[in-house]
Amino acid sequence: MKSRSLMPKNLADRVCDLECAKDQQPTVEFVGPVKIVLVDPSKKENRRKSCGAAFIALANLMMGASNITILYYTLGFKLKLFVNLHIVLCTIGYQLCFPSAILLLNSLNGASSGLKLKQRKFQHLFLQLFGLGCGAAGSALVFLDHFKMSKFTFHSITGVASGGIAVLAVLTGLIIYCTGKGTVEDVCKFCHMSYGVLSFILSSVCFVSGLLRPVYSKWVPLPEMLAFPIIFCVFVTIVVVFGPVYKVLKKMDYF
């Protein structure tokens, strides 16, 4: 039986590395026993993906920088042990695990680009559960250390609100992961994204308000060292919530 070439005649003598058709039409058809269609993404789509991946990479770098700065501060043990543990656990839970969990679902994120959707969902849920555990433990430690009504500040109120909404986000996430497709999943998915975005925004507000407290602002030797973690936190928050907010607004027919 004679074999039939699956490649167009004008491309038959060229080694095809999926870039050989870049000068051809966006869609190239190979006609034979099996019809193969290669669709070349548009330049606009490539630019969008490149910019999105770059912003996510920058967000990961800034997330690490701001978190390391705070963790380095706790190594000086300027505060009580329970308060230091509160800072470490809440920072890891709300400012490291939660944003990382959200970014894991993005296909442009380098850490999850090679994973299947089901694998990304599992890692997303695992990081959320771990982050919620860290945040809850950190909040419990500081409340045990000094539980007085006069201690409820803007920082503590936003922290408690973020943790409470995070519980709702994790619960709806568990329902989505354990149930099949249907109306219940669609409703829970909408609620899960809404709760997750609101919880992370509140945790960022809580994080920034903690940086502005005198006990930390007096520790930094230069004003820039106080400004940069705040700028990094704002940038990370915008990048992380952009995708979920867009999806929520799209479900509400805003786009």
UniProtKB/TrEMBL annotation:
It is an enzyme of class 7 (translocase). Keywords: Electron transport, Heme, Iron, Membrane, Metal-binding, Transmembrane, Transmembrane helix, Transport. It holds the Pfam family Cytochrom_B561. Its cofactor is heme b. The chain crosses the membrane at residues 53-75, 81-105, 125-144, 156-178, 190-213, 225-246. Residues 54-251 form the Cytochrome b561 domain. It is a multi-pass membrane protein. Its EC number is 7.2.1.3. One of its GO terms (cellular component) is membrane. It is found in: Membrane. One of its GO terms (molecular function) is transmembrane ascorbate ferrireductase activity. The keyword Magnesium does not apply. PANTHER family: ASCORBATE FERRIREDUCTASE (TRANSMEMBRANE) (PTHR15422:SF43), OS05G0565100 PROTEIN (PTHR15422). This is ascorbate ferrireductase (transmembrane). It comes from Bombyx mori.
